[in-house]
């Protein structure tokens, strides 16, 4: 017997699949409102929580503390995050993907997605810091 998901879950999931980028919950809510979808902010948060638990969407924390969501079918991105200017630079190729896949298989663990985040200073902020120190 399969359990049907509420239509709000489908609305949120379909939007994230179509969007093909990360978005925070409040911006997602506002965009759904602009598109004429009758869905409340609390419902958006509940749908995101459920979809994340199911592995249908991924969540990552931005440098400013916001959760960003995207469909797991969206190309997995990894980031270099600058703690000073809050810029997030996409790493195009995951440097550990093959090793992780083999390790997950050896652990008999099904992975829906993974994240790889590095935190530090971007080139511009490093230069500004060096200038201030001289």
TrEMBL record:
GO molecular function: DNA-binding transcription factor activity; transcription cis-regulatory region binding; zinc ion binding
Residues the entry annotates as binding Zn(2+): 82, 85, 122, 125
GO terms of biological process kind: negative regulation of DNA-templated transcription; regulation of secondary metabolite biosynthetic process
Binding site for Fe cation: 114
Gene3D superfamilies documented for this protein: 3.30.1490.190, Winged helix-like DNA-binding domain superfamily/Winged helix DNA-binding domain (1.10.10.10)
Parts forming coiled coils: none
Cofactor entry: Mn(2+); Fe(2+); Zn(2+)
InterPro entries in UniProt: FUR (IPR002481), Fur_C (IPR043135), WH-like_DNA-bd_sf (IPR036388), WH_DNA-bd_sf (IPR036390)
Keywords (A to Z) from UniProt: DNA-binding, Iron, Metal-binding, Repressor, Transcription, Transcription regulation, Zinc
Family: Belongs to the Fur family.
Name recorded for this polypeptide: Fe2+/Zn2+ uptake regulation protein
Organism: Hyella patelloides LEGE 07179
